[in-house]
Design goal:
The protein is mainly α. Helix content is about 70%, strand content about 0%.
Length: about 375
């Protein structure tokens, strides 16, 4: 299986939705459509699919005696660390140095941010933390990365599907019982999105063929559930599950079928933004604050008034965000990513009878650029 270019385009759609929700919070459209939640849930499904694909490929190698669980876990954790930690902790350090000016609880709650448990902090506080609020989803992703490899590698194959469905049910119930509080930012309330992505991986890696054969009825059922959610005043499935199912259908269509959507998501600029989407997500709440401080200092030098026009400011923010994210990828992320070659999975995994040729190549090329 080759590099799935449209998945990067899908990341661009997801991160754009999150940005809309944070940069246009009181717009009538954003009040009607929860762009932020939708974007984050799409990221969760993509992560569930890609991470589970990697783990299932290597699980086959472990079962055939080609490598040990310890080796797989070591390499998985090392590769995730190299991909996620560097710019996250660099960003935290930079903000900590000017924490008093950020209007956040970064200094007092630094332990939560350092340990990727900010979602629990928001749950305990029952409030957000300004421009650091979006880090909750990165915390959820990291918690998923710490637990899911053990589940996939230790549970026998015949029990994997029941485990995945159990995870989906757990997420549905956790969301349904969450009420109006912050329970929906806990990993147990997000696990259904990851597990739905994992189902696609299971079907693909083990050549079950269910989603390819029954794509039309699955798509129709998903659309009906989405319509029912939008029309009825009560919901038997939470929005996160509906979004995850819709994302599942999109990913399946990209895996198996050539269509206009795949072409659209493969446009070069969408692929480019998708590859740097982790940085875009990480910095998108910080850039407006930093740029605002910069503009403020320029006022004393006769800055033209139109620079502070709200619409033009959004354009400035977008240009700065993309530029910073691209430089972050070019200078920090990409060079560090090259260190992954020191933690490669057993090459035999690419030869296993799973239907995906050279999984580490195409999965890494897709780029685990998150975020969430």
């Amino acid at each position: 299986m080759h590099y799935i270019k449209p998945l990067d385009g899908l990341r661009t759609i997801a991160v754009t939705a999150v940005i809309i929700s944070h940069w246009f919070p009181h717009n009538s459209i954003t009040d009607m459509i929860p762009f932020g939640e939708i974007g984050v849930d799409v990221f969760f499904v993509i992560s569930g699919f890609l991470i589970t694909s990697i783990l299932l490929q290597n699980k086959t190698e472990v079962e055939e005696g080609g490598q040990s669980r310890k080796s797989v876990l070591k390499n998985f954790i090392a590769r995730r660390t190299l991909r996620i930690f560097p710019i996250y902790y660099i960003t935290l350090l930079a903000l900590y140095l000017v924490a008093d000016k950020t209007g956040t609880h970064l200094k007092s709650d630094i332990v939560y941010y350092l340990t990727y448990t900010s979602n629990w902090n928001f749950y305990f506080r029952q409030q957000w933390d300004g421009m650091l609020s979006h880090l909750w989803s990165l915390a959820v992703e990291e918690q998923f990365y710490l637990v899911w490899p053990w589940v996939i590698l230790l549970v026998k194959r015949k029990y994997l599907l029941p485990v995945m469905f159990f995870a989906i049910i757990t997420g549905v119930l956790s969301n349904s019982l969450a009420g109006d509080g912050f329970s929906w930012v806990l990993t147990t309330s997000c696990i259904d999105a990851f597990a739905i992505g994992a189902l696609i991986a299971y079907d693909k890696v083990y050549r079950i063929g269910f989603f390819r054969q029954y794509f039309t009825p699955v798509l129709i059922a998903t659309l009906l559930l989405a319509i029912v959610y939008c029309v009825l005043p009560w919901h038997f499935l939470p929005l996160r599950t509906i979004v995850a199912l819709c994302s599942m259908c999109v990913i399946i269509s990209l895996l198996y079928f050539k269509n206009a959507l795949a072409s659209l998501l493969s446009v070069s600029w969408m692929v480019f933004l998708g590859k740097i989407s982790y940085g875009i997500y990480l910095y998108h709440n910080i850039v407006p604050w930093a740029w605002g401080n910069f503009i403020g200092k320029l006022r004393g030098y006769g800055l033209p008034a139109f620079f502070e026009n709200k619409g033009f400011l959004h354009i400035q923010h977008a240009v700065v965000l993309i530029t910073v994210s691209w430089l972050s990828w070019l200078i920090i992320e990409k060079p560090i990513n090259h260190l992954k070659k020191n933690f490669t999975y057993n090459n035999a995994a690419s030869k296993s009878d799973t239907g995906i040729a050279h999984p580490e190549k195409w999965i890494s090329e897709i780029g685990q650029v998150q975020k969430s």
